[in-house]
Write a structure and sequence with these properties.
α1 runs antiparallel to α2. With about 150 residues, this protein is an alpha+beta fold. It has a single domain, classed as Heat Shock Protein 90 (2-Layer Sandwich). It has a 6-stranded mixed β-sheet with strand order 1-2-3-4-6-5, covered by helices on one side. The protein contains 3 helices and 6 strands. β1 and β2 form a beta hairpin. The structure holds adenosine-5'-triphosphate and magnesium ion (MG). Magnesium ion (MG) binds next to α1. Magnesium ion binds next to α1.
């Protein structure tokens, strides 16, 4: 367990997940952007949880990464805009580009980003990345061509 400025870090990585084929630096910047937002949303401390998981039955196409904070949350009115370029509630502290760039990167990987948030409770970002099977073929495309 790690303590950074009153923030508790909880990491929960499922051991057996299929590989994903990603541009490592780009996907790393997605995680950094989303974790930075999470930390900035908890100026008085809180918990940052990172989880990875894979569920063959429920969602065989994707390896799932969840980044959850117990911060201020995002008002419902703002939710449709958070992935827009230059949308920021941080004044001069934020360019409003972190989520815009992250969205583009995940989309280029044929993945998905979802967000759930409640004001005063916290926010969870879910990043889904295409899972590959033992032959290095994405599960999604494997279904299409009968592999
Ligand atoms: N975890 C979070 N908790 C609360 N609000 C969030 C969270 N993540 C994003 N937001 C909201 O979404 C807005 C856009 O986020 P984004 O990362 O794109 O820009 P930014 O953090 O303001 O600036 P930049 O990332 O360019 O430094 C934020 O200004 C904030 O209002
Ligand atoms: Mg940001």
């Amino acid at each position: 367990m790690l303590h950074v400025s009153g923030i508790r870090l909880e990491v929960n990585l499922q051991e057996h997940v299929p590989p994903v084929f990603v541009d490592e630096n780009k996907i790393q910047s997605v995680f950094v952007n989303i974790m930075t937002n999470a930390i900035q949303a908890m100026p008085d401390g809180g918990t940052l949880s990172i989880r990875t998981s894979y569920n063959q039955q429920r969602s065989p196409e994707y390896v799932i990464v969840e980044i959850e904070d117990t911060g201020k949350g995002i008002p419902k009115d703002f939710l449709p805009n958070i992935f827009d370029p230059f949308f920021s509630t941080k004044g001069t502290e934020g360019a409003g580009l972190g989520l815009f760039i992250s969205y583009g990167i995940v989309k280029n990987h044929k993945g998905q980003i979802e967000v759930k948030s409640e004001v005063g409770v916290g926010t969870t970002f879910t990043i889904k990345l295409p899972a590959r099977n033992h032959r290095g073929i994405n599960y999604e495309s494997a279904k299409d061509n009968g592999n």
